[in-house]
Amino acid sequence: MIKDILNTFKKPLIVLGVIVVVFIALRVILPVVNNATINNSPIVEIKAENDVSYAQGDEISPSDFTVTAIHESGKENTLSSDEFTIDRKSPRRTGKTTSVEIALKSDEKIKTKVNVSNERNKVVSFECGFPDVTKVRAVLYSNGELCFEGEGDVLRYEDGAYPWMDYDTMDESPITAVSFEEDVTPAYLDGYFANIETLTYVANIPDTVESLNGTFSGCIALTRLPDLDDCTKLQDMTGAFMECTALTEIPAIPENVRTIDSMCSGCILLQDSPDLSEATSVISSIATFSGCSVLTNAEVAPQTVNMSEMFESCINLKEMPEIPATVTNMDSAFNNNASLSVVTSIPASVQHLSNAFNGCSKLTGTFQIDADPEDYQSIFAEAAIATDLDLTGASSALDVMALTAGEDTHITVNGAAPDPEAEYDPDGI
């Protein structure tokens, strides 16, 4: 009887067993097949998500991102943090978000971008629009950013009465960065950020700006400036970066700038002068690099007229730049440049040369001077002390200029000692 019962259930049990075995096999095999399909199908795209908000000083980590790979087969899978790279490790100094580029390690051409949130809270706001004061606001955020928001031009302040300078909790929320929103279109930013000693970064300068007179002067912590390529209306850069003692480089000067007087005066860490090759409208370069004590590479704008004191006290400048044929004034241009040795030439256009090379004790070689100047007092005082300098050229004043070096001169004129009786009358009288 029992045998009959067993025989009755034998076939159903066998069927059930087969079903169970097949089910288990499918549970094991299908994922393997699926993974194999994914692995064998190339990745064609990635997408990323990030819901973290970053404060200044925070680190952006790959583990903060959820990155999904999309395969040619249409299948998707989540990547581990060691399968992709990110191009930023810290948030932007300014703005609401930071753009982070994510690239697949196995194929860096496959990449995507995601904007992560910058953590910043409004501390105080100043209305500064013009002619409608309410149209533009200077908003100071908790991350140190002073952001100009709104639409239109900004006020022109007199006597340095910028409201953000009077903010009584500035020590608690110092201004470390400056930015402008796209629709803020100032014409003049004269003195706007002068003497903000905590300012280190400028995100952008609007392309509508016409004058940067003294805009960043005295910003002793400023280390980075934006490009000025789009600032085609900019004309006045007088004292723009004067006494910015932490600056090591200056962006190229745009074509329409007319004056760069004292632009970088006192920038003691500036090693190279900015690119002036496109600055064809510059006519005044008075004291542009005066006191730039580590400057080793110099350049003069191609159409400048007045370069008096331009490189005064640039004690590490070794080579005199080419002087354009437009220059008329070189008074004290290289005064007290104790390292200057290599000289070029002085064109016939120059009328003022007083103290031009005073204290340039290492001048040596042949120096061509074609100018018949009106003023030449002390042009070579204390120059070529331990070296030999030979003056040549079309100038009729070579002898009298050589004699300004003093009695123990090492300066010759066309290979001979200067005429001690030489006299020079620039007016020909």
Lay out the secondary structure.
Blueprint: H1 2-40, E1 43-49, E2 53-54, E3 66-71, E4 76-78, E5 84-86, E6 97-104, E7 107-118, E8 122-127, E9 129-130, E10 136-141, E11 145-150, E12 153-154, E13 177-180, E14 201-202, E15 345-346, E16 365-369, E17 389-392, H2 398-403, E18 411-413
Parallel strand pairs: 2-7, 11-13, 13-14, 15-16, 16-17, 17-18
Antiparallel strand pairs: 1-3, 3-4, 5-6, 6-7, 8-10, 9-12, 10-11
In short:
This protein is of the alpha/beta class and 429 residues long. Among the domains are: 43-118, Sandwich (Immunoglobulin-like); 333-429, no CATH class.
Structural notes for this entry:
- The protein has 429 residues and is of the alpha/beta class.
- Among the domains are: 43-118, Immunoglobulin-like; 333-429, no CATH class.
- The protein is 10% helix and 19% strand.
- The protein is built from two helices and 18 strands.
- The strands form five sheets. It has a five-stranded mixed β-sheet, with no helix packed on it.
- β17 (389-392), α2 (398-403) and β18 (411-413) form a beta-alpha-beta unit.
- The radius of gyration is 35 Å and the shape is elongated.
